[in-house]
Amino acid sequence: MSVEVERKFVSNADTLKTLEEIGAVCVGQRQFRDQYFDNPKFDLTLRDMWLRKREGCWELKCPTTANGTEKSSGEQSKAAALCSRYREITDLPEIQQRVKEVIKDICEDRETEASPPQEEESWLGEINLVCFADFTTVRQSFTLEEKGVQIDLDQADFGYQVGEIEVLVPEGEDVQSALEKIERTAGKLGLTGDQQVEGKMNVYLQRNHPEHYAKLLSKHVF
Ligand code: V4E
What we know:
The protein is an alpha+beta fold. Helices cover 31% and strands 33% of the residues. It contains eight helices and eight strands, in the order βαβββαβαααβββααα. It has helices spanning 15-21, 74-81, 92-102, 108-112, 122-126, 175-188, 200-208, 210-218; strands at 2-9, 25-38, 50-54, 57-63, 83-89, 130-143, 149-156, 160-170. It has an eight-stranded antiparallel β-barrel, surrounded by four helices. β7 (149-156) and β8 form a beta hairpin. The model has no long low-confidence stretch (mean pLDDT 89). Residues 48, 50, 61, 86, 164, 166, 196, 198-202, 221-222 line the site of Thiamine Triphosphate.
């Protein structure tokens, strides 16, 4: 398990040139399909938990809280506020356990069915999980000399482009140094502005599921 610390930024026609100028190296381009799941009451996403299947692999992102080791001078906390931190779980049994802890209302119909053949994804139906977002992203990834920093430029198939600076921190290790790496990289990229940039999911839900989006806004998830 690791913690993903990231800052999103607006990427545009000049971004590639800037990346080249600061010595970023393109380490590949790939395309992936993401499917996100929740129950009809949005029990996961209203808790800021994001269950997705990316190219056949399950991932659960859960919120993590600042652990007190992050420095908090005015400027530093402003920079840190632009970064998100999520715990990433990729082990399917652990994902299923955590999701089932949250979603207690097991679907009765399925429990009483006469032992249907167990499909690989029958656990989704048991707890009423359905796919609420399905989109494909083309991602170009870059690295810098700064160790552990990755920059991704994403183009989603619903017409939204966004960049992100990302550092993966092994569970229990120092998030502060990740925040500093991200801040230095943001400086090199000349990022200005103190507003959080919207992620793909924000934009997808605004456009495709405005009611779900409004609920997330009202619960301060977005
Ligand atoms: C919606 C969301 C999450 C799902 C994943 O979002 P994101 O990191 O944008 O996806 P992606 O494709 O870049 O994943 P990666 O390849 O980096 O793993 S995780 C957290 N949220 C909620 C959220 C939020 N609370 N606030 C903002 C501004 N954006 C998203």
